[in-house]
Amino acid sequence: MYNLNGRHNVLFYGDMNGDTIAILKTFIKRKSVTMGHIFSKTFQQKRIFLILAMVIGTVSFVLGIRIANSVSVDFKTVQGAKYRWQQLEGNWVVLNYFAKWCAPCLRELPELNRFAESAGKDVKLFGVNYDLMPHSEIEDMIDEFEIQFEVIPNDANNKLPTQTPSYLPATFIVSPKGKVVATLLGEQTEAGLKQKIKTLKSQTY
Question: Domain map of the chain by residue range?
Fold first, then answer.
């Protein structure tokens, strides 16, 4: 296009000689290649950015889930299970504090094993190790005395609805609503625990 006296006029190929047309074609071709290169480079950059954003988003999501899960765990057992009290709602939970040096605790273990097996689906028994011990030692104790229910270690990170008792053996019964409704001191039997829970079930908890 030419600018003549402030007016724009279109220049047609018919108005040009061969050299001018060749130069114009070369110019247009170079411009097309340059714009195509810029567009291709910009597209690749956007694609890389989107991929990086997706990777970062996925990693953040996974880490968020892991952090949320670790924070929401109320207690862990020596066997490796993780529990939240919320997931135990609707069940009767029996917490039995014991120690290896406590003779009455060891005597009641066979009764507790039978209770854990026969109590029913809505009752969950956990042993709570009284002493601070490495997991490996507690595992040895579980094997030695053939404990057939899950054991919670003495760990400050475990959130239990009970205080550490000053007397052993001590057994606490937690209602389906998460409230401690019975404290039993001394040796327990399968029959005695079943009867106690039956009585509690007949009451309003």
Answer: 13-71, 75-202
